[in-house]
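User: quick one, sequence for these tokens?
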């Protein structure tokens, strides 16, 4: 009997792996890929990653060490917990001299535990407070120096360095030469790849005795620690605090001579520079000549005093390629326009490359800007102005300053505060008088002087502040509202039709404007624009009369345009049939005077109530 053949066993399928065996382990991934991955992480997440993943530790440190900040918080004299939390660090990691121990003991005994501040009435308390600040600064320097010395590769990741001008009374703290030597070592490690250097803080309120405790001015200090033109060739952003007792011109010469300015594109000047001793008494006095800053693109002037506008204009004139100017004006009650002199102001107004101006401050700052903006600025396209607008009903173009800039295209107003959402319902005094859809004559006259203005955009003062120009399709997504502007012109008769489309946000998530909810912003923003309760409101004007909706529909139908447009424009042409529709409607109306919404301020509102 023939033997039965057994069927051949089926081959077992090979075990499949999610990644082929040739794939490289994480240790072998190129550094560029690791850096790209960690670039999406926050600093806190990068810290966690560096502590748990050895292969990604070096890449995570590129985020952790991208910025080295050795400055103190702006409210350093108010934060009790900051000092209490940090004090064990000082005792544990660094041996303190008897003088330092006395400083800490005296500081604790003078703290006001209820208010969390230090008494300023006695000079001794003031000395203790400043000495403690310097002690914290010295401790921070030691910590950074130890971390960089133990791992020199960290210095390659540092792109931004923030320091403070040393302030100390030498009979109470360490010898200043020791502190400077430590700073020099830090700078020597990190300066090769530095892009941004910040010295001082714009928010710190400098006291009268500040200059008595400081022994360096900014340019000399940066030169002393090794941040000079010979070794910081990649620097593009410089932030300085200038000394009020030294001439502004002399300090700018020191900056140009001691620091490499041929690569600097952004310059930030902070407090006490505005207290400079020079200002002219008449138009015949010479204006100080500022060294040329040919590569400067952006200039920020914080706490600018009215009597320092001359110097600011000289600095602006020396920057031939300046593109953006940001000013935070100091409102100290100064109201004498005669401190502005024609020659310096002319240099400012006639700047050929300036495209963007940001002007912040209170009502006094707006008054100064109105004076400055009466003429000139022919190349400015974007204007950011800070105004005290508190509720949705105030976000009308009628309450907006429209300067006569011939190239101006967009006005940005970061106006809302965390309290803004409480006033969504407009009070009676803020409602537009009938007809609600009109345009005020003064707005039209201002628009004729700004022939290229297309939009006014209102945004928030919280962490969601939008300082860039957005397309109107993104307004709802960004919780921004505003006004789009169109004007139609008949080139033969000179007739003009103005049509505004105003976006109203009817229901807004209140917490999105509160900085305490910063960690949850991303979840709040998941609600897209089409889900936000909003509406577009039309405002029109033809021969000082509001065009009713039926007539407006006929006009757009004859022209082939959409009534619900979202693309602004100026000087658009219309067919003659559209103008005939408007004329036949307007001729039937009596000339009953000028219509439009009046400017209503909150001060006026109190008088009306």
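Assistant:
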């Amino acid at each position: 009997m023939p033997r039965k053949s057994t069927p051949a066993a089926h081959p077992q399928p090979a075990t499949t792996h999610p990644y082929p065996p040739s794939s490289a382990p994480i240790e072998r991934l190129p550094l560029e890929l690791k850096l790209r991955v960690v670039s999406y992480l926050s600093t806190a997440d990068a810290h966690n990653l560096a502590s748990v993943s050895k292969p990604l530790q070096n890449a995570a440190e590129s985020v952790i060490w991208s910025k080295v900040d050795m400055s103190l918080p702006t409210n350093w004299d108010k934060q009790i917990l900051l000092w209490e939390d940090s004090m064990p660090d000082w005792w544990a990691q660094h041996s303190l001299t008897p003088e330092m121990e006395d400083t800490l003991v005296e500081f604790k005994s003078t703290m006001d535990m209820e208010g969390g501040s230090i008494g300023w009435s006695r000079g001794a308390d003031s000395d203790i407070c400043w000495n403690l600040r310097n002690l914290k600064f010295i401790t921070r320097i030691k910590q950074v120096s130890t971390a960089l010395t133990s791992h020199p590769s960290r210095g390659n990741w540092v792109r931004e360095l923030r320091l403070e001008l040393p302030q100390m009374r030498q009979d109470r703290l360490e010898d200043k030469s020791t502190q400077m030597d430590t700073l020099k070592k830090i700078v020597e490690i990190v300066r090769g790849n530095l892009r941004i250097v910040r010295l001082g803080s714009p928010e710190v309120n400098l006291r009268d005795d500040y200059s008595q405790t400081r022994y360096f001015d900014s340019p000399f200090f940066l030169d002393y620690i090794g941040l000079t033109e010979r070794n910081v060739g990649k620097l593009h952003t410089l932030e300085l605090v200038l000394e009020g007792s030294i001439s502004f011109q002399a300090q700018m010469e020191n900056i140009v001579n001691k620091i490499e300015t041929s690569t600097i594109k952004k310059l930030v000047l902070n407090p006490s520079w505005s207290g400079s001793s020079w200002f002219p008494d008449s138009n015949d006095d010479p204006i100080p000549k500022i060294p040329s800053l040919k590569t400067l693109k952006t200039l920020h002037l914080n706490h600018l005093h009215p009597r320092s506008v001359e110097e600011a204009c000289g600095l602006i004139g020396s920057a031939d390629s300046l593109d953006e100017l940001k000013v935070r004006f100091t409102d100290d009650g100064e109201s004498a326009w005669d401190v502005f002199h024609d020659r310096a102001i002319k240099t400012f107004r006639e700047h050929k490359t300036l495209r963007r101006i940001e002007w912040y401050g209170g009502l006094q700052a707006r008054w100064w800007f109105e004076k400055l903006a009466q003429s000139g600025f022919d190349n400015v396209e974007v204007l950011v102005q800070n105004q005290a607008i508190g509720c949705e009903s105030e976000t009308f173009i009628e309450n907006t300053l429209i300067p006569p800039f011939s190239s101006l295209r967009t006005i940005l107003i970061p106006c809302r505060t965390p309290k803004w959402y409480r006033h969504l319902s407009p009070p009676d005094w803020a409602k537009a008088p009938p007809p609600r859809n009109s345009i005020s004559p003064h707005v039209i006259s201002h628009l004729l002087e700004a022939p290229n203005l297309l939009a006014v955009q209102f945004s928030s003062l919280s962490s969601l502040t939008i300082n860039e120009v957005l397309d109107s399709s993104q307004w709802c997504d960004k919780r921004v509202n505003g006004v789009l502007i169109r004007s139609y012109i008949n080139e033969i008769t000179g007739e003009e039709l103005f049509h505004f489309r105003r976006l109203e946000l009817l229901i807004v998530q209140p917490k999105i404007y509160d900085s305490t909810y910063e960690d949850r912003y991303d979840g709040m923003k998941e609600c897209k624009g089409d889900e936000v309760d909003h509406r577009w409101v039309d405002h029109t004007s033809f021969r000082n009369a509001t065009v009713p909706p039926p007539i407006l529909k006929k006009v757009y139908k004859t022209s082939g345009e959409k009534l619900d447009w979202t693309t602004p424009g100026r000087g658009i042409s219309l067919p003659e049939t559209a103008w005939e529709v408007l004329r036949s409607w307007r001729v039937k109306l009596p000339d009953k005077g000028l219509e439009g919404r009046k400017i209503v301020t909150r001060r006026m509102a109190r008088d009306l109530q």
